[in-house]
């Protein structure tokens, strides 16, 4: 069975943290594919301004163009009327589920607020999850119920070989916690640095074709 990670987010813009997560997880979980799923507009972010989906998609395409196993799905962009993660996961299960083992990826910040998502328990019940540590965010399982806690497998501090034994020996759907990537980069900080013209602080935080794209199209310059 193929192993596919589903990596949802706003990707406004995709940055070095996202790419480090994709690389780290590919190695640790022996993934066949990482599928980035840009959100039409993430339901919990509707109040803030989000860059048009075409730009966010284009930046993802540039960031992944040389890496055959990093791909993009337009499942959410194609169905803006179905913006919720539980809907996306059920569509992915239908299209890939029988031929693949699916892992839904989220950073520590997203995990800690997951119980505010629409049908969050259904999301957790429909795939394996991978929660990735992130500098500045604590990581606990206090916000989920006991039954869900029992599914948590903490891979932090394990070597690739130890983690592989743990993952291969797991039965049923798990919630893996990993420190396979630990990078202090955020899209909010990048947007702010571009707006303020602080080039030295953001240029190295996005893949270079993405930096060129941001400058060419003048993204994030407005108030
Ligand atoms: P913003 O600052 O606009 O909220 P972001 O940097 O968190 O953006 P998103 O596109 O919202 O980026 O992130 C998509 C997913 O990737 C989320 O689950 C988020 O937690 C995770 N993520 C983003 N950056 C990192 C990072 N540096 N380390 C680990 N996970 C990350």
Architecture blueprint of SSEs:
Elements: E1 2-9, H1 16-28, E2 33-38, H2 53-64, E3 70-72, H3 85-96, E4 100-107, H4 108-112, H5 120-125, E5 128-132, H6 146-149, E6 152-154, H7 160-168, E7 175-178, H8 187-195, H9 199-202, H10 208-216
Parallel strand pairs: 1-2, 1-4, 2-3, 4-5, 5-7, 6-7
Helix pairs in contact: 2-10
Task: Describe the fold and architecture.
Helix content is 37%, strand content 17%. It is globular and about 50 Å long. Helix 1 (16-28) links the parallel strand 1 and strand 2. The protein has helices at 16-28, 53-64, 85-96, 108-112, 120-125, 146-149, 160-168, 187-195, 199-202, 208-216; strands at 2-9, 33-38, 70-72, 100-107, 128-132, 152-154, 175-178. It has a seven-stranded parallel sheet, sandwiched between helices. With 223 residues, it is of the alpha/beta class. Helix 2 packs antiparallel against helix 10 (208-216). It contains ten helices and seven strands. The protein has a single domain, classed as HUPs (Rossmann fold, 3-Layer(aba) Sandwich). Bound molecules: adenosine-5'-triphosphate. Adenosine-5'-triphosphate (ATP) is lined by residues 9-12, 17-18, 21, 106-107, 109-110, 132, 134, 181, 183, 185-188. Adenosine-5'-triphosphate (ATP) binds next to helix 1, strand 4, helix 4 and helix 8.
